[in-house]
């Protein structure tokens, strides 16, 4: 308690004079070390700036197909794409998140393996990276956009079966993710099947360790493929999420609604100008026919918008559902390859366990034979012990008595050993 009190109480001031040479130079550093502030040495300001700093993005335009590198901060990207911070966190390369496809009001957030991008109605934003699959994604998207522009210029109009820009960008992302996962599966298959065959032919510690590492890779890869497959299946089962992803149609409806409101305001101003010329009583209300006309126009416009919205949503959902279903089949085939490889590994493990059980059974049988042989040899020890006792009998006086004792004991041992073997075979402990 005295030591604890001395630690807690502040030191008393000393009024004794001391020369600088007699003072201990290590005392100030020790006092500073004892009163070091919490979290000293951690640069929280640097971490905060790193989270809010500018990042390099690759922007692909939908009209020209050209790409450019831009540097914007997190809040600018949030305002530009109308996304919350948690959606941008999915694209952060410092974090590892499972495959995700999110449909928002003005953008689609895609996190599929190496492809992490934001798709809007006019642009695609990817984190600037030197990864091969990211560069291939940009090149393939530009190639398709250029080919579509050439076809549109040659034909003079857009083909009726052409997908919107956001769906084409999503299709390229799905294709890149499926290709990446399928390449990983093919590489694992090339390495796994020979290793499993070698293990079945020769069971060793090195081969077992190699197969254990391959199985760990298989489990991790299966989890990634299963998550991507579940994400596509969940998106296909939800019509609302698929309708939310049609960004071009929502943009067109918003523009049409804006122009319609402008025209209605112009019509109201014209009606107001006409009504000003006529004398109106201050207590009278607007004429009833004008009210009915405005009400009928608003009802007709709302009904027309609702019917157009429902029909377009149904058609667009079918287009997106067919697109997702095509890549769902591809990734399901990849998952089936992993399932077949896992079954092959399980079969190999069962075969090895059977081999080990067979060897164990052979060892048990050999041990049983040695036990029976030891029992037979022990009979000679018993006979030798009996005749080694210090007493006199008439059998010792006969010259060939010792030979008969050995013959009878040996024959008895052989008979006992053969009896045990017959019993073991009768109980099927030994193979016939």
Layout: helices, strands, pairs:
Elements: H1 2-8, H2 27-34, H3 44-52, E1 55-61, E2 67-72, H4 74-81, H5 85-89, E3 100-103, E4 108-112, E5 115-119, E6 123-127, H6 132-155, H7 165-201, H8 205-237, H9 239-244, H10 247-277, H11 288-387, H12 401-426
Antiparallel strand pairs: 1-2, 1-6, 3-4, 4-5, 5-6
Helix pairs in contact: 6-7, 7-8, 7-11, 8-11, 11-12
Give me a quick take on this structure.
By secondary structure, this protein is α+β, with helices and mostly antiparallel strands. The protein is 68% helix and 7% strand.
Structure report:
Its main location: membrane. It is found in: Membrane. Residues 1-30 are annotated as: Disordered. Belongs to the CorA metal ion transporter (MIT) (TC 1.A.35.5) family. The protein is α+β, with helices and mostly antiparallel strands and 432 residues long. Helices cover 68% and strands 7% of the residues. The protein has twelve helices and six strands. The chain has helices at 2-8, 27-34, 44-52, 74-81, 85-89, 132-155, 165-201, 205-237, 239-244, 247-277, 288-387, 401-426; strands at residues 55-61, 67-72, 100-103, 108-112, 115-119, 123-127. It has a six-stranded antiparallel beta sheet with strand order 2-1-6-5-4-3. The radius of gyration is 43 Å and the shape is rod-shaped. Mean pLDDT is 77; it is low at 1-34, 274-287 and 307-311.
